[in-house]
Amino acid sequence: xxKIGLLAGxxxxxxxxxxxxxxxxxxxxxxxxxxxxxxxxxxxxWGDERGEPLDILYLVGTAVVGLLxxxxxxxxxxxQRVNNAQKSADDILKQADKTAAKLEKEAYLRAKERFQxxxxxxxxxxxxxxxxxSHSENKIRHREKELRRLEGxxxxxxxxxxxxxxxxxxxxxxxxAEEKKIDEVYDQQIQRLEELSGLNRxxxxxxxxxxxxxxxxxxxxxxxxxxxxEASDRARWEAREIMAYAIEKMxxxxxxxxxxxxxxxxxxxxxxxxxxxxxxxIKSFESTTxxxxxxxxxxxxxxxxxxxxIKREIARLTMExxxxxxxxxxxxxxxxxxxxxxxxxxxxxxxxxxxxKELKLRNVHPEMRNLLGxxxxxxxxxxxxxxxxKEVAWLAGNMAAELGLDVMLARRAGLFHDIGxxxxxxxxxxxxxxxxxxxxxxxxxxxxxxxVLAHHEEAEPISPVSVLVTAADRISGARPGARxxxxxxxxxxxxxxxxxxxxxxxxxxxxxxxxxxxxxxxxQPEKLTDAEADMLASDIARKIKDSMExxxxxxxxxxxxxxxxxSTDEALAHRN
Length: 576
Known about the structure:
mainly alpha
């Protein structure tokens, strides 16, 4: 029985160590159902050795004692566990304190080291700043000394000026007194002269002024005539020599290109194919190429019109390809138009490269190359602009060679002087303004930019090369066969020339000759002298230059013819 009680007391201790009283109840219940327990197979659980039942109170008391013993053991174990945990926690805290102290010490050392470095740097900066301040103070003190010296010098100069002013004032007063005396004497002399001549002062001034003006004007006109004649003769001789050498070094074809684009057709039935059902083909062609197609009564011909010469060329190639393939429909039109555009672009590049190679020009901006090639399809008064630009380049280069100037620069300026015409159809502004924008954007030489402006007299030439380009441009435009002009424009220009010359006083009649390149002015001889006639020619030429646009040069000839007649009867009557 004692064994059972002890076992019951140890079981709570065992199960209590695992925090499970439920398992203890299950074990005790199992023990009560079995006849033996751990080797006590023959002994009954609820009886003594003789099989007599025990008192239930004794059993309960033994179990309670076992429970108390087990509880006491459990409490001892738990206390030991708590003590161990407390000891472990204390060890951890001590270790943490040691680690924290170590980290704190390291941090303190690093901070101290950082502080020392910052302090050293700050001290260096302060020393440098002190040096700068000291240097600035020295400069300020030196400046103050100079200012004080200048102030003293200014004061001395001011005193000297005051003395000079005083002397000048005294001198002025003396001069004023002398002038007053002179005026009195002058008035007395004038009064005596008026009494002797019978004229007052104003009348005498007018007569003297008129006489002097006539004399000076006559002398000035004669001097101007002589100077102009001498300069004109010399300049004309030198210019003829230079231009003769320049022109004879190049040969130019006298050909003109028409801006009208027409395509020949195999027969008139093709006109219907070009128009298409309900105008489908012609509308597609016009929208794709950007040109206007004119199908009229002209036999076996279709005409295309557009302001853009490149679009006209693309349209011409497209139409010729469609006719050659005998297939006209919207899809074929788009295909052939794209092919024609590539052909034209290749032609533009080829023309540009050939021109630059021919003139031996290098380092040309890609944009300038493309625009130069586009001039192949641009014309002015029937003259191809690319060919005109090449002529100007050769002429300017040849004249530059004769004068000992930069030949390559002259060629470059002459070639690009009309570069603005490559985009003038698509942009606002004159070709001169557009040319300046292009050359500046492509960073061309300043002389090239100035040549673009100066060849239409929109700026003064900054170099002799600019003058040569202007002269070459006029030679190229004025040569026979270079340009053509419509009859209406020609008639208007002739009429305007005659009206402009007739607007001057003393002009009797004006005649335009040599297709408007010369005008002859007949003047009234009784109104203008020979010297005034020469001045009139200069005035008419200047007004034409300022108010008209014309190709080449216009010669102004003023004719004054005086026929004096008399008779013997008139002479006798005059004598009587």
